[in-house]
Write a structure and sequence with these properties.
Blueprint lengths: L10 H5 L16 E6 L6 H12 L2 E4 H10 L7 H11 L6 H10 L9 E5 L5 H14 L5 E6 L2 H9 L1 E3 L6 E3 L26 H15 L1 H8 L3 E5 L4 H15 L2
Parallel strand pairs: 1-3, 1-4, 2-3, 4-7
Antiparallel strand pairs: 5-6
The structure holds adenosine monophosphate (AMP).
């Protein structure tokens, strides 16, 4: 099921609807429209990249939109975005209203021919309810919600080893996914960094917040019959194989 074109540069998602993606997928199969859940650092970004490459879907990460805004000229940032970035640095969630407005503004990305893989959204039950309304308005059906499960200790250790590329947002790991050249992104040559919010004190705040605010989403999506729990204990390639198998089983 490999797509016939590489994944898009996500310009319309990362920078907003005024921008056009440089590559449009031409996929032959029915698109997958997915949400990925799981605690911060569990490996959702890595799985999203693998699934996006496999299905030709667009990787839609709300965190990447904020990180892109952080690197843009400060004159271009709205007051709401400046406030959002301060919350992000502190490991706190941005308001439901701002996140929803940002996603609704980018609703064109939900119609991507290759489908979409949402990573980091929805993150609260309110966002999930508002997203259901947006999907209904756009006449889009969510195929599945994959919940990556990992113990708290393992999640904290995994988040501590994560490195990301500030240019293209590719994700690496000091234990399980090393770049070919130390400290350098394989995809664009950018200098890899630890995310500000992966520092241990901020990571703990994010973890507590996940348990209190985001974990209830698993029950929300289970009730709707779309939840697929996948263990995030094995290696990234095994997790990916298990995710793909579970998705394919749903369409048989
Ligand atoms: P992530 O890359 O998904 O871990 O997101 C990084 C940060 O961006 C989070 O810690 C929040 O501050 C903010 N953020 C991203 N997505 C959301 C969301 N759906 N709701 C609220 N805040 C978000």
């Amino acid at each position: 099921m490999r797509p016939s074109t590489p994944p898009s540069d996500r310009a319309a998602w990362l920078k907003g609807p005024a921008f056009k993606c440089s590559i449009k997928p031409t996929v032959q199969h029915r698109p997958w429209r997915l949400v990925l859940l799981g605690p911060p650092g569990v490996g959702k970004g890595t799985q999203a990249e693998l699934l996006a490459a496999e299905f030709g879907a667009c990787h839609l990460s709300t965190g990447d939109v904020f990180r892109t805004a952080k690197r843009m000229d400060s004159c271009q940032a709205t007051a709401a975005m400046v406030g959002a970035l301060a919350l992000m640095r502190a490991g706190k969630l941005v308001s439901d209203e701002l996140v929803m407005a940002m996603v609704a503004e980018r609703s064109g990305c939900l119609h991507c021919a290759g489908g979409f893989i949402l990573d980091g959204f929805p993150r609260t039950v309110q966002q999930a309810m508002d997203f259901d309304k947006l999907l209904a308005t756009e006449n889009i059906v969510l195929d599945a919600v994959i919940d990556y499960e990992l113990s708290l200790d393992a999640t904290i250790a995994r988040a501590a080893g994560r490195l990301t590329c500030p240019n293209c947002h590719a994700v690496y790991h000091t234990a399980s996914k090393l770049p070919k050249i130390v400290g350098t992104c394989d995809q664009c040559g950018g200098r890899l960094k630890q995310r500000e919010d992966d520092r241990s004190e901020v990571a703990c705040i994010r973890m507590r917040q996940y348990t209190a605010v985001t974990e209830p989403l698993t029950a929300y999506y289970q009730q709707r019959g779309v939840l697929i729990p996948i263990s995030a204990e094995p290696s990234p390639s095994e997790i990916f194989a298990n995710s793909r198998k579970a998705l394919e089983a749903r369409r048989r």
